[in-house]
């Protein structure tokens, strides 16, 4: 019996090895690639599906776009009827029943806030509005305006119900903005939709944040370029094998007052726009994780971030800061292995 069991285990190992080798082989001409670009979630999205059949690939791309639209419908602050916009209208103690998707993102966001000592905080919207209004008026916010906004910011001021179904503000004027995390989550849902629809590989790019699964139709890994913040050139290219990559840039979107640029990423601990690394790229197993850490590491100093990243074995980070003349970079161990030489 023992010998038979051992032989079975041996065959099983050989079969698994064979399958692994096969899946690593070049896919033949039977693999079809369909790629579509559209504007979604206030940005540009490109979805690629690889499937044995072109119709399957087409349907997979459509299903993936459906998920991006759903995330936007639930979480955009530009839609007055989204769940997040309705949470933002609640009085203290009132609660709103929300979808499992929105709950999941809020719950993960709260965990990131706790892990980063409040550097990442989706309740930062009052500060964002304060800076936006000031820039429209062409002046900096006054200390009083910043204090009033900060009194409404803080992840502990948003309560998520233990039953996993509703959210409630603890004080008046709490305002949530999921701009730092929803795109990444949308990548995850879209990737799931591609798989469910029968794609064998795919790539989802929403505004430069990308998640890939499987490999290209020619069997080669997906490759993604990383922009250099100071040069009209790429910093490099990375291989993206069943991973997601997100880049946050404090200069990518900004408010301008008196000709000076202020980042659209705020440090909720000080109320001021982030001034740390101008470009942070994070590679993680899923989109939500990559997106949230990229924003968090833009708020934290490079030293603080490197300390935190040491405890995150699956998260690889590249920081670029300094100036065009003297660019400086730092990477976590393992990031360079992703770079295409
Ligand atoms: P990202 O491009 O992913 O870095 O997200 C930037 C967006 O996140 C901003 O446009 C704001 O909507 C939001 N945001 C800004 N500062 C923070 C912060 N400290 N924590 C969480 N979200 C933020
Ligand atoms: Mg982000």
Descriptors:
eight-stranded antiparallel β-sheet, binds magnesium ion, 341 residues, globular, T-fold, binds adenosine monophosphate, single chain, 17 strands, alpha+beta
Topology of this structure?
Elements (H helix, E strand, L loop, with lengths): L1 H23 L7 E9 L2 E9 L2 H22 L7 H5 L8 E2 L2 H16 L9 H13 L5 H8 L7 E3 L5 E4 L12 H15 L4 E6 L2 E5 L8 E6 L6 E7 L2 E6 L5 E4 L2 E4 L2 E2 L4 E2 L5 E6 L2 H13 L2 H8 L6 E7 L4 E5 L3 H4 L3
Antiparallel strand pairs: 1-2, 2-6, 3-5, 4-5, 6-7, 7-10, 8-9, 10-15, 11-12, 13-14, 15-16, 16-17
What overall geometry do the principal axes of the alpha carbons give? globular
- CATH homologous superfamily (4th level) name of one domain: ApbE-like domains
Overall number of strands: 17
Distance between the termini: 51 Å
Q: Helical amount among residues, as a percent range? A: 25-40%
- Quick one: CATH class of one domain? Alpha Beta
Structural class comes to alpha+beta
What is the architecture of one domain at the second tier of CATH?
Roll
Sequence stretches where pLDDT stays below 50 over 5 or more residues = 1-26
Bound molecules: adenosine monophosphate, magnesium ion
Strand content: 25-35%
Structure summary:
With 341 residues, the chain is an alpha+beta fold.
